[in-house]
Structure formats: C-alpha cells, structure tokens
Amino acid sequence: MPPDNGGYMVAAYIVTAVILVSYAVGLWRRVSRALRQRGAP
Amino acid sequence: MTTADSARALVRRGTAVTVVALLALAGVYVLALLYTPVEARQGLAQKIFYLHVPAAWSALLAFSLVGICGGLYLWLNDRRLDRFAASSAEVGVAFGVVMLTTGPIWAKPIWGTWWTWDARLTLTLFLFFLFVGYLALRAALHDPSERARFSAVVGVLGLLLVPFIHLSVYLFRTLHPQPVVLKPSAPSLPPEMLRTLMVSALVFVLLYAGLVTIRYGLAVMEEEREERFDAA
Amino acid sequence: MPESLRLALAVAAKDIRAELRSRTALLSALVFAALVLVIFNFARDPTALAAVDLAPSVLWVTFALAAMVALNRAFTVERENGALDGLLLAPVPRGALFIGKLLANLAFVGTVEAVTLPLFVLFFNVDLGYALPGIAGVTALATIGFVAVGTIFSAMAVRTRFAELMLPVLLLPFMVPPLIGAVQVTARLLDGRPLSEMLGWFRLLALYDIVFVTLCTLAFAAVMDE
Fold it and tell me: Domains in chain B: how many in total?
C-alpha cells in the first residue's frame, strides 16, 4: 500500500505551473511595455 | 532590417516556441499524473521527480551557457554573447525557483525532512545563489561595457565553482552517509518512467529556448532604447 | 627576480604600508574577531555540546567574517585615495597588479588569523598540541582560495553603489568549498586523526587554490580595462 502523499504532488505541480506561467506572462508584459514606449506601428 | 524589427521578430518567434512548450508542458502533466505508474514504496509524491529533475537540468544548462557565453564574450567581445548570457541567467532563475521549491516539497515525503545537504539539493541552492549574484551585479552596474565584462567574469568563475561544490559535497557525503526514510528512485527506472522523464526534459529545454528568445529580443529593444537616450 | 613579481611585491608593499599607516581597519577586524569568539562561547550550552565539537566551525566562521571585513576595508582605501586610477595609468601588467593586491589582502587576513588563533585556544580551552602545523597549513590553503576570489570581486563591487552588500552576495558561494574543507580538516586535526584521512580535503583545497588564483589573475585584466 503506497503512502498517502498525493498532497505534496499536487502542491509541487501547481507551484511549478504558477512559477513558469507567471514568468512567461511577466516577460510578455515587459515586451508589450517596451513596444508601446517605442510607438509600435 | 532595423534592430527594432529584428527584436520584434525574435520576440514573435520566442512567443510561438514558448506557447508550444507550455502546451506541451500541460501534456507532460497529463502524462506524468495519469499515465505513468505510481511507485509502490514512494507513492504519488515520487511524481514530483518528473518536474524537479528536468527543471534542475534546465537550470544547469542555463547556467552553463551563462558561463560559456561569458568566457566567449571575454575572448571575442561580441555584445550578442553578453545579451544571451543575461537572458539565460534570468530564465535560469525561473527554473531555479522551480527547482528550489519542488526539491523540498519532494524531500519532505520521501526523506522525511524539508532539507538535506545532499549533492543534488546543495547544488541547486548554490546554483540559485550564483544566478542571483550574477543578476544583482548586472543590475548594479550601469556602464554597458563594465556590466558585460564583470558579469562575464562572475559567470565563468561561477561555472567553475560548480564542480568544486559537487566535489565538496561528495567528499563530505562519503564520510557522513545520511539516514533515509525511504530510498529515492533507483537509477534503473522502469521504461514508462524513463520515457516520461525524457519527454519532460525535452519540453523543459524547449520552454527554456522559447523564453530565452523572448528575453533576448527584449534585451535588444532595451539596448536600442538606451542608445537613443544617450544620443538625445 | 622577474619584473612582474617585483611589480606585484611593490603593489603589495604600497597597500600594506597604506594599511599600517591608518591601522583602524586592522584593529577593528581584530576586535570583531574577538567579539565573535566571545559571543559563540556564551551562545552554546557547555553541558550539551563539548567545546571541541564546535571549535572548528567557530574558528572558521570567525576567519571567514574577518576576511569579509578585510576585503571591505580595501574599498574605502581605494575610494578615498582614488589610488586605483593612478595605478592604472602606470604600465603595470594587470596580472601583477592582482597578485600584489592578493598578497596585501592575505597579509591583512593572515594577521587577523594569527592573532585570533591564540584567542580561540584561550577562550575555548582547546589543546592544539601537534595539530598546530596542520592547522597553519590548512588555514593558509583555504585563506588563499577565498581571498583570491574576494580580491577580484571587491575590485568589481567597488564600482557599484552598495559595494559592502554586493561583495558578500557574490563571494559567499565561493567561500563554501574552502570552508567545508578547512572545517573538516581542522576537526580531524584537533581529534588527532592521522593525516592520511585528510588527504582528499587537502587535495581539494590545493586544486581550488590553483584553479581560482590562476583564473582570477587572468580575469583581472577584464575588470581593470577602461
């Protein structure tokens, strides 16, 4: 009978997704800001 | 093609790769959570392994490139190498945070403790400190040439530190074997687990490539803006 | 004597003379080291843990902190005198300049270590005995390692606004392998273990020194370029 530690797995999977998606979104926002400042056509 | 156009092209390409990679990551989640077998002794928590290990490999890849590009920059003096190193460092930190959070979340159920000074976790911590130091130095230097040269030196020295950290921990560990609650995964993995791990690793590297491309494009844009201000 | 070596020694002598003239940094480092030792003594429960178990860690934390103080004082000297600009105009090869600064920093840290060690023996009632040459040896090896990296990082950090903060952030990861090795060897020496048990650590320390002193000497040119 494997130990009941599914909670940890869920936590890790959520945390990973949050970190990576936040970083990607953050990058995108910085890019949009830079494009706006330059007056993108 | 002006620098602004090439920057925008890079960002577009990078975004496309990133989106594909994130979708693939979702696929990996499904694969790891539903299709790979549950390890009998370690339970569901063992599946953290499919995220933690690829994240660590990507962070190590990111940092190696920071060091290698730094060394090449010192030799060739090509601005693009510096831009790439800086981008790789920033993306590397993101993977580093994943590494440092999933590590303890994995260690607690498997080893019974949130932290342990074994080779793997210790290296992840040091890699993180090195990334942070590298980025902090860059943020504190305003002259572009100084910033590029100094961070290149830190990158190279940092990359060479990694084997020493590993050696120190190895020497320490062979004399102080650590108690384990459950033995972590043996090196010979059943094929489904190995396959999932490899797929996940590829997806992480793809994500790294996409994010670095976007970041590089952003760096080009920022440099161009800096130059216009200086000229004004 | 080869020209570069002579230049390095000249640079070292200049730095050491500057330090001896003011002496405030040396004294504050010594007082600081003594203070750390006193605090450690009161922090531990004498019945719970024997002094000799904690001793190596306490000694090396003290040495590491003293090294930080030493490297920090190098900033204020450079900034106040603008001495660095003068040196750069002179045709001193950058490698020799680095070795000179390294020697000056080693002299400073070495002095603090040499004074701290007897204080440590006194406060912690440690019996050094036959361990002394070994301890001197490992101290020299470890110190060379982290002072070399510290010297180049302090040259970089001085160009930033928060130099005193930037130096530890950059340097601490690099201090860890020499410190681990030093503590392990010191612990074994104080335990009276045979040298054969520590050869691995000595080799690690020596390799670290060779790699990093060489690299930092070569890299110094990139840090000094205008």
Answer: 1
